[in-house]
Amino acid sequence: MRYHTPATFENASAIAAAASGVTRFLAGGTDVLVQMRADIVTPDDLIDIKHISGVKDIVQEDDKCWSIGAAVAGAELTAHKGLCADWPGVIEGMGLVGSTQVQGRATLIGNLCNGSPAADSVPGLAAAGAEVSVVGPKGTRQVKVEDIPAGPGKTTLAKGEVISGIYLPPRGKGGGDAYLRFIPRTEMDIAVVGCAVNLRVEGDTITEARVVLGAVAPTIVVVEDAAKALIGSTLDDKALVALAAAASAACRPINDKRGTIEFRKDVAGVLARRAAKIAYDRARGAK
Amino acid sequence: MPLDTKTTGFKYIGTRPDRPDGIDKVTGKARYGADAYAPGMLHGVMVRSPHAHARIKKIDATKALALKGVKAVVTRADFPTGLEGEDWNIQENCMAGEVALYDGHAVAAVAATSLLLAREAAKLIEVEYEVLPHVTDVDEAMKPGAPAIRAGAADYSVPEGLHPNVMRYIEYGHGDLEAGFAAADLVMENTYKTEATHQGYIEPHACLAQLGSDGKGEMWVCTQGHWFIRRMSAAVLGIDVANLRVTPSEIGGGFGGKTTVFIEPVALALSRKAGKPVKMVMTRSEVLRATGPTSSSSIDVKMGMKKDGTMTAAKVTMRMQGGAFPMAPIDSALDCAFSCYNIPAVHHEGYDVLANRPKQAAYRAPGSPMAAFATESLVDEMCRALGLDPLKTRLKNASREGTKASFGPTFPRIGLVETLEAAIAHPHYAAPLGTNQGRGVASGYWMNWGGETSVSAALGEDGSVTVSVGTPDIGGSRASMALMAAEALGIPYENVRVNVVDTGSLGVNEPTHGSRATYATGLATIEAVKQISSKLCQRAADKWGIPAEAVIWEDGCAKPSGPNAGEFPPLTIGELAAEMGSTGGPISGHFEATPSGHGGSFGTHIVDVEVDPETGHTSVLRYTVVQDAGKAIHPAYVEGQFQGGAAQGIGWALNEEYIYGADGRLQNTVFLDYRIPVASDLPMIDTVIVEVPNPGHPYGVRGVGETGITPPLPAVANAVHAAAGVRLRSLPMSPPRILAAIKAKG
């Protein structure tokens, strides 16, 4: 195994592009190192991106967009007052990943690139409309978060491509988001169903909404019908019923050791309703 | 042995000093199994079957042995043949012979100069399998057409016509069952199932083994009982026990699962072949796949009850699979099934069944939690049907001194009534409940154990005392032994040092199992240190020139027994010890026996849960354990045992399970998906220590380690019923199962 510590993302990309065997990028390592120890993956080239300048930065740009470095750990996000005020749903999703110790290392981009359909930070990012910048042999491109996952353990990134940063849009007025997951325990577990809701209100009426499910399909699912159920409503019972039905209908789950198809469909609807209520309250100014 | 049981007026017993091993453990200095090192040590790694049932056609280690640094490969061919009975079972489980019997069954092992190299070499060992049909469910394994795992191996007890996977059959009871059911106002019968669960000890199995070509060896190992490890390892390898010295490490949990061997004989075999010490440490996945979880079970229970709650008759049939080997704990499960109650007619039947799963090992009151799940769930269902208070109904039927136990003998003084009365009087039982919340109760029993025990105590030159015991300290037993020695000698707790010593230092000791250590090792400790005080009385008598009978031992001093004995100032243990070299030589005490005066412990639990009706998620809100300790030597560690039993029982009830795929492979081999409760899943577990002294122990001790896991399974199931209106008769009560039950109810 070769261990690399490139100084730029261009260098990181070039190393990956030139590599012939199994390649992994290393940021927090909370997935890669565990997989190596469990013999799930044995990289020929391990490319540590933590030595690249700026990877630990959280910056709010002039347009109020948030730029988050590739090696910013969950604990740093959770401790960031500005981010938590703007995007509580995104941050609470990331905060659910692993233990306190894991939070000291785990990153948003690692959670995204690991490719798990159950990744807790990804539905919130997608609901927020987050984008990532991808550095590759052909230059840099901006990609929507929901376009990165391709299936369990897979992403749409091409050979030599590496994510250099993540961007959350300006929060703006009347916005609120929330993420809920179902686990049989209370922590240290993997989502059986996850649901993020991001919305905007004018007065009591919802004007924009995005609803994203996790762990109910090979990738996260952006549920357009669920968003439609919310938009124009005041989150009344009728809207909640339609939201839950749309969320359940969008699931394409499997029966596995963590849950049944029926259970995941039912709970997706339940979580969509509950997350929408939290996001709605937040949008209207609840702390 | 008549015992002068002392039950009041203690100076040290019942206090809560710090445990002597505490600081080393919390500062990382304590040496656990994996912390043993030896010069020239190799690392051993097991090759395991990926199949649930497969004939081993060929093992080719050529490529592995060609790697530089690989020193030895062993297969079954490196072990002696001709073993019989349980020795053969253990050998077969440690290293498969002709057939791999479960996913994870060891088929070969390799030793190399580094762990990485050994892991690499293990992947290069080529094993050719012929996959055979498999069965993992206990009911399926008894059906016609199920693959016979070991045809012709059933013992004499099995009636003709049963599937060859049935290894043993048990049937017993007393009273007129039909008359009992006829006298009942309500007869109910249901079937219950429990899944296999693992003890979940945090420390994986680990050992460092050294065995020479001369057949002499030494081993450092994480275990509950190193004499067991010595005997089993020697049997598997065909060497004499005296040639193997085994030293136990500190132990990070056992719960029964570390009373047998898995890697130890293999590490010895690798060492013998390589001529070097070999260390083996299991991964968590190996622990879950290939050590001994508990049995899974399928249980029919039938009970008759009068309108006033009087139990008239009861019948239980237990089917348990203990993996691909006999000895599922049907015996103790049946013995505990109705042990809480005085029922005129009882009948028990048990089937010990093979399945393609790892060989079960003991897990905290083996069999009793499953039996309690079935019987205590049914009692709750019948109390509901008749509108009776579940605790008062239990009290009405409770076993007490003089009751003919459901398993035969007549109970001596026991404390079930006291636990039930304490539970009824506890504020928890009357506390209000909110929406979607419910309360469950259940009682449980474990008979406890005495067992072979050998203890030495030696007096130091300054009057401090070293006690050498052979039962590894899992739950604070060194503190308890020190308290008992301090009490018996009248010297401070801090002046007693208790060591767990190796197999070369004492006679045979059974493991720390059966909730026996505080009882049996404690009894032996008291008797051993009493020999020291009586020898010290003799030394004082010699000094004073009076007969030894005229000297008494009190508060750490030899004193004349009264005015007639003469006027002498007391001689302290320190003064006598300082001059012992010139007054007759070193002073020690030794006691060994197989004490049989152990007393069973009953417990009653109260639990409140809240069930989310939309997701089936259960939260445990409040939990109270009431249990008879006989006498709590160190109350904090007694409470810890109560809480630990409840925590493991809650995990078993709600989310823990062995999940097998259609291919017979275990699907949840890490703690992510084998869901033991995490700290935030549990409330602070309240405890009430009831003390009904055991007349068989000098200070009244009963074992407390195991009973605590017997009531939680039914207590939680009864609470879930109260909260959600659904009765779950299969464990675990995971959210998908509870939600499905809620939806089915409509």
Overview of this structure, please?
The complex is a heterodimer of chains A (287) and B (746). Chain A is an alpha+beta fold and 287 residues long. Chain A has a domain at 175-283: 2-Layer Sandwich (Enolase-like, domain 1). Helix content of chain A is 33%, strand content 25%. In chain A, helix 5 (88-95) packs antiparallel against helix 8 (122-128), helix 9 (224-230) packs antiparallel against helix 10 and helix 10 (237-250) crosses helix 11. The longest helix of chain A is centred in the last third of the chain and has 23 residues, at 261-283. The N and C termini of chain A lie far apart (49 Å). Chain B has three domains: 22-30 and 450-593, Aldehyde Oxidoreductase, domain 4 (2-Layer Sandwich); 34-133 and 200-290, Aldehyde Oxidoreductase, domain 3 (Alpha-Beta Complex); 367-448 and 599-745, Aldehyde Oxidoreductase, domain 4 (2-Layer Sandwich), CATH 3.30.365. Chain B contains 21 helices and 26 strands. Chain B is globular and about 85 Å long. In chain B, the strands form six sheets. In chain B, strands 3-5-1-12-9-10-11 form a seven-stranded mixed β-sheet, with helices on both faces. In chain B, strands 7-15-14-13-8 form a five-stranded mixed β-sheet. In chain B, helix 10 packs parallel to helix 11 (368-386) and helix 12 packs antiparallel against helix 13. The longest helix of chain B has 28 residues, at 517-544. Helix content of chain B is 29%, strand content 23%.
